[in-house]
Amino acid sequence: MYAAFSPANASRTTAQADEQLIQEGRELFLVGCSFCHGQNGEGVRSDNGQLGPSLVGVGAASVDFQVGTGRMPMQQPGQQAAVKKKAYTDEETEALAAYVASLGPGPAIPEESEYTLDGLSEDERREAVVNGGQLFLTNCSACHNFEGSGGAMPQGKVALPLRDSTEKHIYEAMITGPQQMPVFADSVLGPEDKASIIAFLESTKENPDYGGFEMGGLGPVSEGMFAWLVGIGSLVGFAYWIAAHSARSKRQETSA
To answer: What does the PTM comment of the record read (predicted)?
Structure first.
């Protein structure tokens, strides 16, 4: 009798909990999100264009990323949502994600096992980090720099540094493609490849500082600019100073 009735009861209890979570998320959504995204997440168009895009099909992962990093709700429309202090607690973010996920199928919030290399041996982990570095240089460094320090983008946008991002948020960004970032589907980068890229980024945080000016880790462009303006400029100034203070011979006029 227990085997016959217990699964049904457990399933009913889980469904009720999910429904309650979705209802809590809808209440939060109507207060804080519906002005831009519509009362049913259908999106809102203003006179000057679309104010808030439709959220149907964006999935729970997109909400967890945007709200969990403070990008949403936006303080004001702009070229790019800025990272700021979170406006919602983790429990409220979970409820919002559950409600938006109920609007249409989309990427789910990843499990920890998807974006970490737990369970691998030391040699396997080292191989994954090397592979992740190669994948990052091929697919990500054009915007985020070769070590994830970020960089400028067209139309006033910017690729933010990745050193302060959590592993989960990096994975969610790859599967949802926030703002100008493309979506890296599993057919392009498999889950193991995404985890390897994240492991490579985590390894860059542990790189020792050998001294000198890091120049923000922005690579040869900033270093070359510094060399030209400061290095060669200082040498030219020093050479001019030597020439200005050296003894000069004067031609003396002789009487006829």
So the answer is: Binds 2 heme c groups covalently per subunit.
Residue ranges covered by each domain of the chain:
14-102, 112-204
pTM of the shown model = 0.77
User: 44 by DSSP, 3-state: which?
Assistant: strand
CATH tag, 14-102: 1.10.760.10
Nearest to 100 by CA among 179, 185, 186, 21: 21
91 is in an annotated binding site: no
What number of other Cβ atoms are within 10 A of residue 144's Cβ? 19
Q: Does the annotation flag 144 for ligand binding?
A: yes
**Cβ within 8 Å of residue 29, ≥6 positions away:** 37, 41, 96, 99, 100
The partner residues of 176 in beta bridges, in order of sequence, read: none
Q: Is 140 annotated as a binding residue?
A: yes
The two domains 14-102 and 112-204 share their CATH topology (first three levels equal): yes
The answer to whether the annotation marks 36 as part of a ligand binding site is yes
Which of these CATH numbers, 1.10.1040.10, 1.10.760.10, 3.10.450.10, 3.30.565.10, describes 112-204? Answer: 1.10.760.10
Average pLDDT, consecutive stretches of 10 residues, N- to C-terminus, the chain (256 residues) = 55 76 96 92 81 92 96 83 92 96 95 90 93 94 85 84 91 93 91 95 76 58 75 87 71 59
3-class DSSP state of 2: helix
